[in-house]
Amino acid sequence: MDPERPDQKETKQLTTGEKSDTSLVQKVKDQTSALKDRAVEEAKTYKDPQDTQLWKSIFRVSHDRSDPRNRSLAILSNVFLHLHPAKINRDAVRYPFTWGMGGITFYLFIVLTFTGVLLMFYYHPTKVDAFKDILYLEHDVPFGKLLRNMHRWAAHLMVITTWLHMFRVVLTGSYKRPREFNWCVGVVLLVLTLLLSFTGYLLPDDQLGFWAVTVGTNMARATPMMGHEGPFGAQLGMTAYNDVRFGLLGGSIVDSNALLRSYIWHCIGIPLVASIFMAVHFWRIRKDGGISGPAPVILPLGIVPPLARQVHRSSPGIFHQNCNTFSFCAAPADRTVIDGRGGTRPQSNGNRRTHDEQPNRGIEARVPVPTIARP
User: Fold this and answer.
1) pTM
2) Region 172-181: what's the mean pLDDT?
3) In a designed cystine with 258, which of 118, 200, 205, 249 is the match (CB 3.0 to 4.6 A)?
């Protein structure tokens, strides 16, 4: 066989390179055409904003009133005409799933509002009287120290429960469609909760609050485009006397103006804004079909724990007797059999056998099928 000449090797290399270049160009053309088609479809949807997912996540489509069923749905789905939902997912209101963090956070907000109004009777937002009022409240006012501690600890707990509520929402995927807008509302409420805690820190006018606000407002100087030390701040004309820190403090230092502004924001401004967003948050929960529940799927491993399978292999008769003694299952119509290989198979009532007749079949567990109320 004749050896290949150098010109033949170069021709093969060129052919291979041309093929790779051709496939790459074709791939780029396909991706470009796909992006073009997608852009055209997006442009068509923007002609009618009500067809976009952004619009549907914020507003709900109105029902056609010509159908009697739709007329009833228009009443049942309206939070003002029908306060409580007509049906809910029974698994969505279980504490192991929701942790109750949303309700606890709202309860703490009510406690903070009540105790805060009572504290306003004994407080003057001035540099001369602020710290004296705190001492008078703790030592001379009946139950004054208890009142202040209730307000302080409720504020700390509200921040914790808000974070846990957001954490639970992330774990359960409750931020996904159709609840993405309500997730954004929840993020705003989280920021408002942190601002309430921050503005209330200065009101006692002690050393702890003074230096905490000093550090926090110094960090605000580095805010992008809004602080004179932040990115693009100097280009936009920001200085130490017109940036976001100056607006928060009412000056260049933490003094009486900062105390007065913190008092107004803490007692009037932020609570009003937070109340509006909480109303929208609760309304969206109702419009999105109630609290998001777990998926309507029963995993095989969740039916019988691994330890129970080991006990069954060692002493099946004793475990089967315990299963009959502790009847933790529902109607015998819905049954799933877990075999020794880890698989599952359905079994009807007509072919149901006892464990003694099927010693090697594994463990039988009666599984209740929950009724899922869909939004």
Assistant:
1) 0.66
2) 88
3) 249
